Amino acid sequence: MNRKCSPSEWLDDDHTRSVLLGSALSVIAPIKSDSGSIIGAALVRIPTDRMWQAVQNQLKIATIIALAVLGAGFLLSLLLAKRQVAPIEALTAAATSVEERKFDPTSLDAVTERRDEIGRLARVQQVEIASNRKKLTVFFSDIVGFTETTENLDSEELTSILNRYLNEMASLALKYGATLDKYVGDAIIAFFGDPETKGVAEDAKACVAMAVEMQQRSAELESQWQDAGLERPFRVRMGMNTGFCRVGNFGSQDRMDYTIIGGAVNLAARLESAAEPGKILIAHETWSLVKDAVNAKEMSPLMLKGFGQPLHVYELLGLRESVPTKQFAATLTV
């Protein structure tokens, strides 16, 4: 109010009035008779310190509730994020342990139970220490006379050539879906059928298509390196076989290799050793699976070390004209 008024003046306009006087808020309201005339007034004094204390108490309570809700929300978000990140961290740790040859398959047990893409990745990555028996197509290759071919090169040139060759071959192996087992110097060991397979026949077809394109790419690399001064021919020989193998993690607890063993593996290695430079030899089992998709020439039966009987062997000449290499690769990825 802008001026001081007496109580009677407050009631003249028939309205309730309030005024702050000192440390109290005064509220005065008229009291009317049945006829409507003012017969008195009601006065209420409210101490302002108590009023503000009540307001502050309510603000404190509201602040505490808001902080509690925010804290609970933060903790819930943290728990949800940790739940989502934990399986990814487990996959990352498993991948690292595989590189270090210390992979423990049981470390992914909880992740493999998931029904989403993370669970599927874990199931693919998880392999049992106890090996599985599977029918695989096994591939071996090496550069004939690599040591003699590169004996006049310095270490940097040798490293550059070998790494270039292995990178090119590894790219083709991944293109066709091979599992790269290992490199042994200039030799490459790969197989089809584990951990993922398109069926025994399709795995074998993928392997022969890969081998044909590897030979084509090796010939291109040989031409490039000869132009660069590499005098001796750069020829690759290859061998492959289809049969039952043991596949899994083999080794000690401190160091394990995910690899394959068995007679079918030995036969593929022997065929590679028996192949002439620039040639591909395939066993009868593989030929029977791919004969409709490739051109092959039957060789004279071979006596190979570790095998008691002569074996039927075929030289892979190429893919049928109706299935070019690039087109064949495209059909494998559909």
Could you characterize the architecture of this molecule?
The protein has 334 residues and is α+β, with helices and mostly antiparallel strands. The chain has two domains: 7-48, no CATH class; 132-332, Nucleotide cyclase, GGDEF domain (Alpha-Beta Plaits), CATH 3.30.70. The protein has helices spanning 7-12, 48-99, 109-112, 117-125, 146-149, 155-176, 200-227, 263-274, 284-290, 325-332, and strands at 17-21, 24-32, 38-47, 132-143, 179-184, 187-192, 236-251, 256-261, 280-283, 294-298, 313-319. The strands form two sheets. Strands 4, 5, 6, 7, 8, 9, 10 and 11 form an eight-stranded mixed sheet that branches. A three-stranded antiparallel sheet has the order 1-2-3. A hairpin with a 2-residue loop joins β5 (179-184) and β6. Mean pLDDT is 80; it is low at 322-334.
